[in-house]
Amino acid sequence: MKNVLILGGGFAGIESAIYLRKANYNVTLISDRDYFYIYPTSIWVPTKESSFDDVCVDLNALKNAHGFDLIIDSVEAISAKNNTVSLKSGKTITEYDYLVVAMGASKMKHPGLENTLSICGAPEQSILLRDKLEEIVNKGSGNICFGFGGNPKDSSAVRGGPAFELLFNVHNYLKKKKIRQNYNLTFFAPMEEPGKRMGSQALKMMDVFFNKLNIDKHFGKKIKSFENDGILFEDNTKLSSDFTMFISAGDGHDVIKNSDLPTNEAGFVKVNDYCNVVIDDKISNIYAVGDVAALEGYDWRAKQGHIAEVMARNVAHNIEARDKNKTDFKGYNEHLNILCVMDSGDGAAFVYRDEKKAFMIPMPIFGHWLKKGWGKYCKYSKLGKIPRIPGM
Questions:
Q1: 66 secondary structure, DSSP code
Q2: Rounded CA gap, 165 and 146, in Å?
Q3: In terms of C-beta density within 10 A (0-12 exposed, 13-18 middle, 19 or more buried), how is residue 109 classed?
Q4: Distance CA 168, CA 162 (A)
Q5: DSSP assignment string, 109-154
Q6: Please, what is the angle between helix 11-22 and helix 305-323, to 10°?
Q7: Are 151 and 291 in contact (CB under 8 A)?
Q8: How far apart are the first and last CA of the chain?
Q9: What are phi and psi of 243, to 5 degrees?
Q10: 291 contacts 179 by C-beta, under 8 angstroms
């Protein structure tokens, strides 16, 4: 039985481990934290609709459910040439036939970023967001700003959906407390039309939502720096803010940038359609899945959890096919789409886009509970307590 080493305990890493174990491989997963964090449902931690533990799954429980080995440690270095992975603890791992890199991405580092908090940053930031929101509520009034940025070197490394979701949830949270009128909510982004990748219909509907909910917009100006009382733009104008939530664009992981793996300009691992890393024109024993990989394809493509899971399932299939001398490899490109249930706290909207169509369907009230249900499904299906729905 061959050994597979997986680096990363997020959506891509966990899905890789689950499906490689189904294919009867010995699997070791390395993660720098002892829990799997369900980022899509963390939007409710700041508004206290969910606790931090609600959006976490114990990695040891997942290990026991699926039978993979688990190491809690940080990856310090990867050497494709030497077939080694070095860990922070000082251990170097060499005994693996295949390496699956699923370490996610780093974040672009804007000046003054420490003056912001992110719903897509370190999981602990969701708790800090909760505490900051409670602080400003106790203050009685204020300016709250929400935004996200892009990476000019890789347009797929953007994550704007959670920024919209948290904005709408905070609006709803303040409305329930009957204090919404005391707060100025502003959405900002350096691009002219944030959300455009979701399609023209979605872009128009978002504008309707902003107007209906009395949310200000500040678009099309590049960010110079974040300060403790606002956002400074390149033209030296300033947006006042008592509380700034900003999702910085993804950037190549520092460990990847310092490795001998081939990368694109932004530092993401170059892979072929089968998620295999090609080195010196030869297929290697290394695969990269999820945010760590350089996605190729449409201008509107975006790194999302469901794409990461497609890539992971494909890798499990492709490794097994490779070992059986088959050539029915599965590619990720045909599965590229944007898919999300954008929650607002009192409803949601279903957003979908692929190369043929793009649409956004409002789902008042039940959409919120649909996403809540998905969160429970995600947790319990991964633990093997309820059946997995094919493709989910």
A1: H
A2: 10
A3: exposed
A4: 10
A5: --TTGGG-B-TTS-TTHHHHHHHHHHHHHHH--EEEEEEE---TT-
A6: 30
A7: no
A8: 28
A9: -160, 115
A10: no
Q: Which residues contact 327 (CB under 8 A, 6 or more apart)?
A: 321
**Pair type for strands 276-279 and 92-93:** unpaired
Nearest to 154 by CA among 49, 249, 220: 249
Give the tens place of pLDDT for each residue, 247-303: 999 999 999 999 999 999 999 999 999 999 999 999 999 999 999 999 999 999 999
Residues in the chain: 392
State residue 196's pLDDT score. Answer: 87
Give Cα 271 distance to the centre of its chain.
Answer: 19
Say which DSSP state 269 is in.
B
SS3 101: strand
Q: At what angle do helices 59-66 and 11-22 cross, to 10 degrees?
A: 20
The tokens for 227 are 């300060």
* DSSP 8-state secondary structure symbol assigned to residue 235: T
Q: How far apart are CA 289 and CA 46, in angstroms?
A: 29
Region 64-84: what's the mean pLDDT?
A: 98
pLDDT for 389 equals 84
The predicted-structure confidence for 362-389, as pLDDT tens digits, reads as follows 999 999 999 999 999 999 999 999 998 8
Structure tokens at 198: 């979701």
Write out pLDDT tens, residues 248-264: 999 999 999 999 999 99
